[in-house]
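Subject line: Sequence and fold of a protein, written as structure tokens
Enclosed: The protein record, placed directly beneath this head.
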Amino acid sequence: MPTRNVLITGGSAGIGRACVERFAQAGDNVWFTYRLGADRATVLAEKLNAEGPGTVRAFAFDQGDWADHQRLLDELPGPVCVLVNNAAVGSATVARYAGPSQHERDEAMLRINALGPLWLTRKLLPQLIEQGCGKIVNVSSVGGGVSQFPGFRLADGMSKAALGHFTRQLAAELAHEPVEVFAICPGAVETGMFEASTLNALDPVEQAELVHRLPRGRLIDPAEVAELIFWLAGPDSTLLHGAVIDASMGLGVHPGLLTGQAH
């Protein structure tokens, strides 16, 4: 596979970090964004560049801020071949990006999770079409993208559902273009976002009980999700153009495993 230029938003932690590592290991040029944690992003880029074979660069990016979208695209060192729209905030982590009121946090969640990928994709799409190839992978969530989880912030599920619609609509419009688009909906992944939204409110015994209820009795490793994204960005995923994929290990068809009791 030839070297590709891959843009991954939210690449300094969690699923995004695992994606950066996976594409870099394959020898791709990986450009990833971060909002907080500049030191963490710098360390990751330096580590992967030292290991080779891919070239990795980190870019500060305030997703959902129109002016910052323009700045990021001006700073990118070349055309993008693969876009992974991964950056997002969750029911708990949105507090880092918005004021204390519910309406402020709802607005931030929809702006970052839904408008951000829309704006970034719209700006890059003409270039992807012109160069005759391209892959877009939108990272949604089992909550909103596939199923419903009572107790989670309404705007959270709405923003993730929007990514599903965005993927299907864009796929329909690109049916005869050389660009493919997909969405994946991970479940309970071992990330800081899931800890903040779900695990941190529980004591150790309750955490163990919750994990036991999940499919296979475990959390999903971010590297597992990254491997799926890497495959979707490859040459064999064409048949799944427009697919919104339940990548929750079965939680999407049995949400009560998270919200209810084990049986």
